[in-house]
Design goal:
This protein is mostly helical. The chain is built from four helices and no strands. The longest helix has 52 residues, at 2-53.
């Protein structure tokens, strides 16, 4: 009877450690996915900004839409990873992913503002366009603050992030 109980406890411990490790691996995989989509989103956003400055407005809108899609995918992955981090009760990953989501939301807002600016440029309304460009820049500056927070979390916890 004791052998069965010991075996059951050992089996339970192995199973639970596998589940926790699975959550951590899942978080790391999704965090990598978040970063890939944010990087692609940034590339499209920057292309949109360059095209807007060069008055290649139709292409700027296409790039804006692509940036929005990439940031949206990053947001979905970050939210899924955050749920896993909460399930694993991992405060470091929760803080990291909270900052990632705030960064992504700022980038989504910046993209929306850039899109609005481009539309006002198409209507030959530069004052309104500049107002939206300023808002886009403010959102991107805020996104950089959240990115710095994430980088600091990684710097302080190098063994948690692969």
């Amino acid at each position: 009877m004791n052998r069965i109980l010991v075996f059951a406890v050992v089996l339970l411990v192995v199973f639970l450690s596998g589940c926790i490790q699975s959550d951590i691996n899942n978080i790391n995989d999704m965090s990598s996915n978040v970063n890939v989509h944010m990087k692609k989103g940034n590339e499209y956003y920057n292309k949109a900004a360059v095209n807007a400055n060069q008055m290649v407005l139709d292409q700027a809108l296409v790039d804006c839409n692509s940036a929005n899609e990439e940031y949206g995918q990053a947001e979905t992955s970050a939210q899924t990873a955050l749920n896993s981090a909460r399930n694993a009760n991992d405060a470091i990953f929760v803080e990291y992913l909270d900052n990632a989501l705030l960064e992504i939301q700022a980038k989504l807002n910046a993209t929306k503002e850039l899109n609005n600016a481009i539309r006002f440029l198409q209507l030959n309304q530069p004052t309104s366009a500049n107002n939206h460009l300023n808002a886009a820049n403010n959102y991107m500056n805020r996104a950089l603050e959240f990115k710095a927070e994430r980088e600091e979390i990684v710097r302080q916890n190098p063994t948690k992030f692969k």
